[in-house]
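The records we work with from here on pair a chain with its fold. Here is one such record, which you should read through line by line:
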Amino acid sequence: MATKKNETALAVADNFQLMNRYEGIDPELLAELQDEMDDLDPESGITCLKIKIPSGGGLAYEVQTDEEDDAEYMKQIDGVVIFTHRANGFWPGAYGSGEDQNQPPACASMDGKTAIWTDTGELRSCEGCPYNEYGSGADQTGKQGRGKACKNMRRLYLMMSGDPNLYLLTVPPTSIKDVNRQLAKILAGGVPYTGMILRFTLEKATNANGVAYSKVVIKKGGILPTAIAAQAIALRRQVKEQYQSVAITLDDYTPATEQAQPRTAKGGVDVSPMSDEEWEALTGEKTSDANAPQFQDAPATGGDPVLPFD
């Protein structure tokens, strides 16, 4: 019996190009640039421009440009995911509008499993950590909420066609479950994420408390030509070797256009308190405001599906 296909095969995007910053430059000029770069202090690691998710249910990403303090707003981003990994960050204390957005977390994990306490260098397991339990967080009023004090995130490193920049999109807790499921479904089709174009949009959602927020939506956009996919794979290896040099800061979690969110002594910014629907998706338990369940420890994987790129 013939198998019925559930979706139309994606077309090969012959016009998609991955570029390096000096592609096509005159060899003599390139040699001079490299010689002058050697005069400067060397920098290690990778450099990224940031893509930020708006607050309040906005439908346009804030995309950093090469110009300092400048941004472009895009409702749709078509790009190749070069690499992705989980990340956790815990920021205790309170802050206001004057808080430094480059503030590192008191405890950070670059894989969602093992964390480093910044002040002491102590290694901690994210599994079983009291700050990584549901119910340890607080909402914007300081009231204990259903979320976690430690913020579970996913970082996505993207490249767009004809653009030599590497972009970093940090997915917040309100979208991480949906993003994981979408990526797992996409990869189940048998094509690596380095072999396809993914389309990123935003969808407005409202939680049970009436707070609007923006959910990340990812769909397949096209298949990369073999040569371009090979470039993406090579870039993935490079980024995977150096991604830990891109430090987690408060700016990763703070949404675009809203640079100051209330924080409580329990730690963590709770931009949009978890709705019943979000709670059920995260824990598999049904609940209501009148009959909330007992909070349970976060599972070892943070409740996310186990993906091939974890």
